[in-house]
Design a protein that fits this description.
Distance between the termini: 61 Å
CATH superfamily: (Glycosyl)asparaginase
Order of helices and strands: HEHHEEHEHHEEEEHHHEEEEE
Number of domains: 1
Oligomer: single chain
Strand order of the largest sheet: 4-3-2-6-5-1-11-12
Bound molecules: N-hydroxy-L-asparagine
Number of strands: 13
CATH class: Alpha Beta
Length: 359
């Protein structure tokens, strides 16, 4: 018997032995005997109709309250998340989302955003400039084009065709910070781990703000519908054309109506490498709680790059369709805001791998 035939025989024997151990039945194919699509694995959590919205960081509190104005009246989760994340997009004190975001290394404010509903509908824009609410352009991509993601010039062209206004998003304060940064021109994402301290200078950033932080929001409405949104100006002083995790469906945001949703913040390259939000949702599908799923997704990043992960931040936030919430980060200090009928201004510190910061 040749080596190859011996190998094939051994593999077949191995396969039938494991089938016997399993019960000897073949898994159902995608099409059942009646010609219908066979169902996927059963969701493990029953759906809730208790409306709830959660989002990343302390600026999520105000964003959640805007979303709650819709959810609390029985509105749609998709409308809630779009409206909610528009709050930090408009906030001039927030230098990591929307207008007044810190620019790239060449001085351009370039924004990333994505939105997704429970049925797998999604839309995103990446590296879009001059549009104050990229989340709304992302929704238009979802609803009015056959595409999922538009980038750069094409995204701007589409936004203008849709009636969005072309604006200067670089504020004098952000421009000043950029000039300050140019003195050293060193690209070094800070570990965004403290409560936002706009203007207090704690982080050593010009103006005192972090040089990145994204709002990721997940909502469930009174009809049990899930939706998510994510929007950011990305990493301050990034290379022109750099796109982070936030507009990448499966990285910065993922929603599956049968299971739940997840979103992320932190160094987007690490999230993309690990298809982070998709991973969190898939782990929930396998039966993990949102908390366990976020922790495991964080640990994948840490295990892959143990040394590098000591000096970077990634945080995941998730909610399953039962409305259970979980979060986990590499570094101490990631917080998330929770809002429902009982309490509209909850802010919860997330657990983390490291309890002291390495920066
Ligand atoms: C990015 N994930 O562009 C975003 C930035 C961020 O906390 O969330 N920082 O990589």
């Amino acid at each position: 018997m040749t080596d190859r035939r011996r190998f094939l025989k051994a593999s077949l024997l191995g396969a039938s032995a494991s089938m016997l151990a399993w019960g000897g039945k073949l898994a159902a194919g995608p099409i059942d005997q009646s010609g219908k699509l066979a169902a996927g694995p059963a969701p493990r959590t029953p759906p809730t109709t208790t409306a709830r919205v959660i989002s990343t960081w302390d600026f999520g509190i105000a964003a959640n309250q805007a979303a709650w104005a819709i959810l609390g009246k029985g509105g749609h989760a998709l409308d809630a998340v779009e409206t909610g994340v528009q709050v930090p997009e408009s906030d001039l004190k927030n230098h990591s989302v929307g207008r007044a975001g810190y620019p790239d290394r060449d001085g351009h404010v370039s924004l990333d955003a994505s939105i997704m509903d429970a049925d797998g509908n999604c839309g995103a824009v990446a590296a879009i400039e001059h549009i104050a609410h990229p989340i709304s352009v992302a929704r238009r991509v979802m609803e009015r084009t056959p595409h999922v993601l538009l980038v750069g010039e094409g995204a701007l062209q589409f936004a203008l065709e849709q009636g969005f206004k072309k604006e200067e998003l670089l504020t004098p304060e952000s421009e000043k910070a950029w000039h300050e940064w140019q003195k050293t021109a060193k690209y070094q994402p800070s570990i965004n781990s403290e409560v936002h301290d706009y203007g207090k200078g704690k982080t050593g950033m010009p103006g005192g703000a972090h040089n990145h932080d994204t709002i990721g929001m997940l909502a469930i409405d009174a009809q049990g519908r899930l939706a998510g949104a994510c929007t950011t100006s990305g990493m301050a002083w990034k290379m022109r054309g750099r796109v982070g995790d936030s507009p990448i469906i499966g990285a910065g945001l993922y929603v599956d109506g049968e299971i739940g949703g997840a979103t992320s913040t932190g160094v987007g390259e690490e999230v993309i490498r690990n298809a982070g939000s998709f991973l969190v949702v898939e782990l929930m599908r396998q039966g993990r709680s949102p908390q366990e799923a976020c922790k495991e997704a964080v640990m994948r990043i840490v295990r892959r790059r143990p040394e590098a992960s000591k000096t970077l931040q990634v945080g995941f936030l998730a909610m399953n369709r039962a409305g259970e919430v979980g979060a986990y980060a590499i570094q101490r200090g990631f917080s998330y805001a929770v809002c429902d009928a009982k309490k509209q201004d909850g802010l919860i510190p997330a657990q983390s791998v490291y309890t002291t910061n390495y920066s």
